[in-house]
Design brief:
The chain has five helices and 16 strands. The chain has a four-stranded antiparallel sheet. Strands 5-6-7-8 form a four-stranded antiparallel sheet, with no helix packed on it. Strands 9-10-11-12 form a four-stranded antiparallel sheet, with no helix packed on it. 18% of the residues lie in helices and 38% in strands. Strand 1 and strand 2 form a beta hairpin. By secondary structure, the chain is of the alpha+beta class. The chain has one domain. The longest helix is centred in the last third of the chain and has 20 residues. The N and C termini lie far apart (73 Å). It is globular and about 45 Å long. It comes from Camelus dromedarius. This is WD repeat-containing protein 49. Keywords: Repeat.
């Protein structure tokens, strides 16, 4: 059975996989390169990460290219990792190959990784021109929901996406099920759950509203601060008019 390692993502796009038993960083993944971190058990993580960058085993770019990955380039490409999701339902991924980790963030990109082979298998532009995004997946790893800073929500079918390893990176997006705008401001949180055989997407936004929507249907319910404010001001108006009378 697939065991999920500890993992963190950074502003510059690096994803660090940790061995939860030894508490040592094991591998660094990045859209432009990968590093194998070799260390002794007592090596401090900070020193380990610094040493790892000088010992690449499977780099996807030469040293000159890596040198060009400056702060300015990262700021332009905006590789920042906002959300990481392990596809735990893909239990046979170690034997068959394919993606078992999804990341998203800067520039609206979603990336699928094979942590067994330490390889970026696919990346696609989920949301264009809106900056960073967040995402969530259901426990069966059939659906992927992504949300952006403009309040747009997209639901993708990833059931058959990146199930096998490949030498070339896939840039084709998975099947898009729905694209709609349930919020007026940026989506700050996304979750998926099952209720009565239906998969629901729960989204919270900076517009002080929460939307519960069916994966394949219309929004089930939208509620939040907007309704409270309307009720509050309605009560004030009612009280004011009664006092005048």
């Amino acid at each position: 059975m697939f065991s999920v390692p500890a993992h963190i993502g950074s502003y510059d796009g690096e994803i660090v996989l940790w061995n939860s038993s030894t508490e040592n960083a094991h591998y660094v993944l990045h859209p432009d390169y990968q590093w194998l971190l070799k260390s002794k058990p007592d090596t401090e993580p900070q020193k380990l990460l610094g040493a790892g960058r000088s010992h690449s085993t499977h780099p996807t770019a030469d040293q000159a290219t890596l040198g060009a990955c400056s702060f300015e380039r990262d700021a332009e490409c905006n590789h920042a990792v906002m959300t990481l999701c392990f596809l735990e339902a893909r239990e046979n991924i170690a034997a068959t190959g394919g993606a078992n980790l999804v990341s998203c963030g800067g520039s609206g990109y979603v990336r699928f990784w094979d942590t067994v082979k330490k390889q970026l298998l696919a990346e696609f532009l989920a949301h264009s021109g809106v900056g960073s995004i967040i995402m969530s997946t259901d426990k069966t790893n059939r659906y992927l929901a992504t949300g952006d800073l403009d309040g747009w929500l997209k639901i993708w079918n990833i059931e058959e996406y990146c199930l096998n390893s490949s030498k070339s990176k896939l840039t084709r997006a998975p099947a898009l099920i729905r694209s709609f705008r349930p919020h007026e401001d940026w989506i700050s949180s996304l979750e998926m759950c099952e209720l009565g055989g239906r998969w629901l997407v729960l989204s919270a936004s900076a517009d002080c509203s929460i939307c519960v929507t069916d994966v394949c249907g219309a929004p089930v319910r939208v509620f939040g601060q907007v309704e409270i404010l309307l009720l509050y001001y309605s009560n004030i108006y009612l009280t004011f008019t009664m006092n005048l009378a």
